Amino acid sequence: MKKAKIFKIIVLLAVIVIGYMVYLWFMPHRNVQSTKAFATIEATNLVNEFLIDNDKANSLYLDSEGESKVLIVSGIIANISIDQLGQQVVLLKNPSDKMGVSCTFIIETNEQIENLKIGDAVNIKGVIRSGAEYDEDLDLAENVILEKCAIVV
Amino acid sequence: MKNLFLTLFMAAISISAFSQDKQSTTSGHIKFFSSTPAEDIEANNYKIISNINQATGVIVFSVPMQSFEFEKALMQKHYNSKKFLNTKTFPKSKFKGTIINLAAIDFSNDGVYEANVKGALTIHGVTKEISEKFTITIKDGKVTGTTEFDILLSDYGVIFKGGKPSTNISKTIKVSANLNYSKVSA
User: How far is B77 from chain A (nearest CA, A)?
Assistant: First the structure.
């Protein structure tokens, strides 16, 4: 009787451990669009936060496990292009700014770009991957990078 | 007055010459691949920024480290964490190098050219001098760059002491990149 009870407990524990391992293995990627936005911010202001204090902005927006802040960025479309995966890339940038926010859509949201053109004002939701920076040594102007993007109203 | 025009004219020429020398991309593809008997791991990143200057031979890269995507979500979390690449503290990897054999590359003629690039690669806050081959393809004036090389993780302070990572992640990672440059319009 006692043995049977111990056996049951062992089986139960094994099921829990295996279940947890299966969960870890199949853990889905975070759905950015269904994640609540951390903030709504203008492209210019977001860029400036990084230019003024890079470390502070990095620690505010970036996550130590890569699940960085989901933001809604508003701005004027300065450029529309396509990347090597076939994803649409919309650059939000004020004409007077040196850098902007580069927003990469996903295949599922690509079609949202079809009716947009340079000069349009839009709100775009996505996950931040890295901040803006002017690297003097590299002579490289780096935009803020947002991925998994979609247009929001 | 004549001098002023001449100066302006010269300035205009030098500006246009400058912009023509420089090609850039903000949507390059970079991939890393780790192979061990336990498993193969691959991650892709389509957000690499690069400039190449045809006149000086200077090539620069900036890679947003959090843009690497893995098939497994948990693996991606591990990769970003403090134990591995610590991408919150070191969000970008950078490279600045020069083409040693610049004379051998004719940017005005279609062809495939092997460039020898030497420069400083910074990953995880650690900078190392590297020399690698960079294949430049010119077709109809379009410049494409591809490269493939190995990096030893411990060179950049990424070290696993025992446990699953030490058996499942290769000490040497294969990095490959594909850059589709276009002329800087500014």
Answer: 5
Residues of A in contact with B92 (CB under 8 A): 130, 133, 142
CA A66, CA A59: separation in Å to the nearest integer?
Answer: 12
Secondary structure tally for chain A: helices H, strands E: 3, 8
> Cβ contact (<8 Å) for B46 and A83?
yes
Q: Tokens standing for B30? A: 């970079």
Q: What is the pLDDT of residues B126-168, one digit of tens each?
A: 999 999 999 999 999 899 999 999 999 999 999 887 777 788 8
Domain spans, chain B: 23-183
ipTM score of complex: 0.88
Does residue A20 fall inside a structural domain? Answer: no
On whether residue A13 sits in a domain, the answer given is: no
Alpha-helix runs per DSSP H in B24-175: 73-80, 163-168
* Interchain contact, B72 vs A89, CB within 8 Å: no
Sequence letter at residue B134: F
Per-residue pLDDT tens over the stretch B73-116? 999 999 999 999 999 999 999 999 999 999 999 999 999 999 99
- Domain CATH for A79: 2.40.50.140
Instruction: Give the structural domain span for A99.
Output: 39-152
> What was the pLDDT predicted at B11?
55
3-state secondary structure of A100: coil
Partner-chain contact A89 B26, CB within 8 Å? yes
Residue-wise pLDDT tens digits, B54-63: 999 999 999 9
Report how many domains make up chain A.
1
Closest Cα in chain A to B81: A65
The answer to whether the Cβ–Cβ distance between B72 and A138 falls below 8 Å is no
Q: How far is A29 from chain B (nearest CA, A)?
A: 5
Fold of B23-183: Lipocalin (2.40.128)
